[in-house]
Give the backbone structure.
Amino acid sequence: MKSTKSDKTFIIRLEKEDKIIESLTTFCKDNNIKAGYFTGLGACESALLAHYSLETKKYSEKNLKEPLEIIHLNGNISEMNNEPYLHVHIAVSNDKMQVFGGHLKEAVIGPTCEIFLTPLEKTLNRKPDEEIGLNLLDI
Amino acid sequence: MKSTKSDKTFIIRLEKEDKIIESLTTFCKDNNIKAGYFTGLGACESALLAHYSLETKKYSEKNLKEPLEIIHLNGNISEMNNEPYLHVHIAVSNDKMQVFGGHLKEAVIGPTCEIFLTPLEKTLNRKPDEEIGLNLLDI
Amino acid sequence: MKSTKSDKTFIIRLEKEDKIIESLTTFCKDNNIKAGYFTGLGACESALLAHYSLETKKYSEKNLKEPLEIIHLNGNISEMNNEPYLHVHIAVSNDKMQVFGGHLKEAVIGPTCEIFLTPLEKTLNRKPDEEIGLNLLDI
């Protein structure tokens, strides 16, 4: 993982074998980022996608294991229990240009991933919501 | 609908049963936002998508009625006749992680929807374009 | 291509027959933009998508020739050899609301395309990476 900064924006490049969620969580800790959002593009070797059911309060999963373009890495940053909490959705495409998407549990970078991250001054927190079964933004 | 602000960015959380276009239009009116853009993610219970044909100058529609992850809520804000005008496209995925997308007519939120909205100082207007059959940005 | 500016953000409207990559590259040259990122939505008449294989170090392509909604135009701006270098991914949908996506080689605008571009002060450079076979961000 490489990074630089311009204006208030962090520019991050993930490298082959980097894990997206793991890497960005470390990045937020190291840079003391407690709120923000980011957008990215690139390509990955695999991606574990998930879909939430309000009825069962559980995620179903699909593990894609093939070279995939990352059409859009779409995420936000908050905190829970004083740790960075990343909420990330992703759209990826295979070599037929078919697109799959979902809540991103984790993905392993292939050639590269280029991320533009906008940090915010405010601390954003999450707390569990029993009815919904998820950790919602506490605003 | 809950919201807070950090730096110049509005952070908005839509709640179960909130309608995206209706809620954000109200938000822009209430906060006197005349231009801007936003990005979001979350999940919805239904989404009415549309596809425009230049030939017929009409939208065709598809009404999805199932739990869907919102991979990307992608919109901009302008004004027409002194009212907020939202132009929004969306990508959603079902429990097979298949993605559908289009011009968003309306969607009803399921568990949550987290939106980061960047307002701009300038007033952006739209005006109808006869040849295209749509209300284009007047710039 | 029409454009205006508010705060630091450029708002760009591409018009029927404009090519996305060609138009935005010209825009960056004309406005001396050496780094930044952008998001857009609209509709196109055709789009040439590509998918990279690390194994062969080549892109495969798919040329879509039909009216398509642009669900998301997702790009960043850097420089190589003192010329603007655009890295752009795109998701588009057909009249069945099916989504296709990939690395964008070029697309021809249909009714309109509305782009919000955030320039950054820093110069971002790219350089070829032999192992990966692509021009990576030099950070």
